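Researcher: For the record, we're logging two predictions in this thread. I'll number them. Prediction 1 follows.
Model: Prediction 1, sequence and structure:
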Amino acid sequence: ALGLGGVVAFVTGSVILLDEGNLGISLPLIIGTALLSVGFFLWVMGRMLRFRRRRAVTGREELLDAVAEAMEDFEREGRVRVHSESWRAVTDKPVHKGQKLRIRNMRGLVLEVTPDNQSVIEGGH
């Protein structure tokens, strides 16, 4: 809004100067500068919207729905590896070492995981 308001103020001020004899600004210069400014602001807004839609790459949001790998066999609680880090995890189904798991939630430093049916399970488990 401020960018477009600035362009409107620039064009209005420039048009007012068209009437002055010795301070006149050429009309093609006004139009070219205004179009260039509007194009720049639209490009910046498009980039900002694209950045806003990107998925988080750090923190809790990045871990949710990520794939982890079981580091050991466990029934309820055990260790999993996510992005080269070891995490404590809980599940409601038995897990085998090397099995791919999907992270569903995070409570503190404990991940809630479920077996991932979409990933290939290594080791034949």
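Researcher: Logged. Prediction 2.
Model: Prediction 2, sequence and structure:
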Amino acid sequence: MVVPMGEDGPFDYFEDQPYESGAGAHWAVRAPQRPSDRFDLKLVPRALARGSDSSALKALARVEREPWADRLTQVDNGVELRLDDGWIETLGAALQDGDGGEGRLAEMARGQRFAVQFCDANATEELHTGHLRNLALGNALAASLAQAGATVERRNLIADADADADASSGEGRAGRLAGQRRTLRGLGIAFDRTFRESDFRADAAELTARSLALGERLPGGHICALAYWVAAPKLEGTTSIWVCGEGWAPEVVRCRALVGELMSEGVDDVHPTYEVFYGRPSTGAQVRASVGQSLPLIDELIEWLRAEIEGHPRGQEMLVRLGPAERVAAQVALGYFLPRALTPRVDLFPEKLLRTRESPGWDLARARAHEGRAPATSGKPAEDPDYRFAVVQSELHRSELRLVVERLDTGPLARYVVQLARWYLQRGRSEAVERVVRTVLDRGARGLGLE
């Protein structure tokens, strides 16, 4: 029996069901890491239920009646589920035609509003590789929330309140800010609203006076940034997220408590609603730092990557599929950070950015441009374990995107996309598998802000 596109599939069926109803209360679903000719999914007992309980066994009987289920086989560590061939081929045909089911994804967070603030560079500096992880994480989070159907506003706060007068005035300051905008355009990152710390000096002075009256002292270096969050416009009814380095964590805890005391009674919302902390990257020396810069500029890194990609044996194939070399270079640089945990320090050595299995962005770009070159299998597509595996993997995107909305962490989504890319690159795949995987990887790239 074939399930029409748009209806819930097995991952939805086992997701977040109350204990009293549905097989999802008794069994969790797991996707295998490699194709199998026996099963497509593994069911394992949840902590609240044992696989031998009568209620759990009845739940399995209900699973077998679902239109997407073909057969269940009990094994020592769970239950193997083989999906219906018609369900596989219906979903697979849509994926081959380029339909990634993004309409279904967009129902997940529809009606929710988010403001994601990131970048926050100093007005006197050019954007260097120390900013790159912030840009990658903030842009990916905004893109994922938008893919889930939320209304998302990207915000940037320019740190100009404490800028040195000579360095931050006139033509020099304007040139630095224009350079920042050029770098952001080169990375494919656009902000919906940009603010300046200096616009909030009056609010900062009021906060300082009120804090002194309470016998407290606000942190000296970023009072205007704190004042921005107190006075930031158009955040009513919005979940506000600040992407910032882990060095801010102690100060954030202190400021949250203090701002709660300083704000007037009857004000319920304290912004930002959430902070996303990350560790700073360290960098190697292959890309030379500019004079006066302790870290290489992003523009220098992108230029080095551009030249390397254009000279790569598979470079032209990649550029035909993905666009100009500068665009691919930006995807490689931003993608390097996305599957990694938020807090640990990340070593960004430029020479690693073009190494297989060391650079997530590079592996994803290569996979999106890769041609299968394997002969087509005889018979129906659903008889090919690779094809079944690729189709089932496509459904994982919704589960991982749901976690982004719940946890504000794009890491699991990025790891899923990159793992699929690396599986696809292991050997030649048939043209049908290639078309399915490309749709899934392109959708993943959009959800991570790389497209």
